[in-house]
Amino acid sequence: VQLVESGGGLVQPGGSLRLSCAASGFTFSSSAMSWYRQAPGKERELVAAITSVGRIIHYADSVKGRFIISRDNAKNTLYLQMNSLKPEDTAVYYCNSPGSWGQGTQVTVSS
């Protein structure tokens, strides 16, 4: 199993980023997927989760209305569209399939 995140970076408050997670080594189209994040000094938290067929399972209250999780099973790719970013969204964002993690991508929201 390999999960490779990309799309992180430095963005100003109010800006947007789209994270991607390229998956390989397992049947992506059969797997529920999730995005987690971990800020410095804090525990890793679940941000959003999606079923194998694209039904949304969960959004953290802190991102509802601002983040959108989606997937493209033809491309074996998971996405996280992040809008109206806030400084408190600063964290390393991780892609997750049951039992596996990516290496993470840093998102920094700062002016």
What would a concise description of this structure say?
The protein has 111 residues and is mainly β. The protein has no helices and 11 strands.
Largest sheet: 7 strands, mixed
* Average pLDDT reading: 97
Would you count the extended β strands for me? 11
Topology pattern, helix = H, strand = E:
EEEEEEEEEEE
Number of H- or I-type helical stretches: 0
Q: Give the low-confidence spans.
A: none
What is the beta-strand fraction?
A: over 45%
Radius of gyration: 13 Å
Shape, per Cα inertia axes: globular
* Ends apart, CA distance between termini: 37 Å
- Helix fraction bin: under 10%
What structural category arises from helix and sheet content?
mainly beta
Descriptive overview:
By secondary structure, this protein is mainly beta. The protein is 0% helix and 52% strand. It is built from no helices and 11 strands. The protein has strands at 2-6, 9-11, 17-24, 33-38, 45-50, 56-59, 67-72, 77-82, 91-97, 100-101, 105-109. The strands form 2 sheets. Strands 2, 4, 5, 6, 9, 10 and 11 form a 7-stranded mixed beta sheet that branches.
